[in-house]
Amino acid sequence: MKEAVIPFLIGLGTGVLSGFGVGGGTLLLIVMTNFLHIGQPIAQGINLLYFIPAATTSLPSHVKNGFVDTQVLKLAIPAGLVTSALAAWLATGLEVELLRKIFGVFLLAVGISELLKKDEKEEPST
C-alpha cells in the first residue's frame, strides 16, 4: 500500500496540471524517469496511456468554454496521427540516451520560447 502513495500523488498532481492544459504528461515523464527511476521507454508508454483518460476528462470543459477550434482540428488530428506513428517508429530505433537528449533539447526550446513570448491579450470569442 505504501508503495502506491507516491505514484498516486504524482498522478493526482499531474492530472490537475493536465486539466489546466499545462502539460502534466510531460511533467509525469520527467518525474518517472528522474525520481522514480523508471526507464525512458517504459515511462513513455505509461505517459501515453495516462494521457488518454486525462485528455478525455478535460476535453468537455474546454469545448464548453470555447477553447477548441474545430477548424484547426480537421488538419491537426490527421497530421498528428501520422507524425506520432512515424516518430514512435523512429524512437524505437534510437538509443535511450539519445532519446533523452532530444527530449531535453525539446523541453529547453519550449521553455525558452515561453519565457520570450510576449503576452497577447486574448480577444473574447464572438
Q: Please, how many domains?
A: 2
Sheet having the most strands: none
Record field, number of beta strands: 0
Oligomeric status = single chain
The overall average pLDDT, rounded, is 83
Task: Describe the structure in your own words.
The chain has 126 residues and is mainly α. The chain has 2 domains: 1-66, no CATH class; 69-118. The protein is built from 5 helices and no strands. Helix 1 packs antiparallel against helix 2 (24-34). The longest helix is centred in the middle third of the chain and has 25 residues, at 40-64. The protein starts with a helix and ends in a 10-residue tail after the last helix. The model has no long low-confidence stretch (mean pLDDT 83).
Layout of helices and strands, plus pairs?
Elements lengths: L1 H18 L4 H11 L5 H25 L5 H22 L4 H21 L10
Brief summary:
The chain has 126 residues and is an all-alpha fold. It is built from 5 helices and no strands.
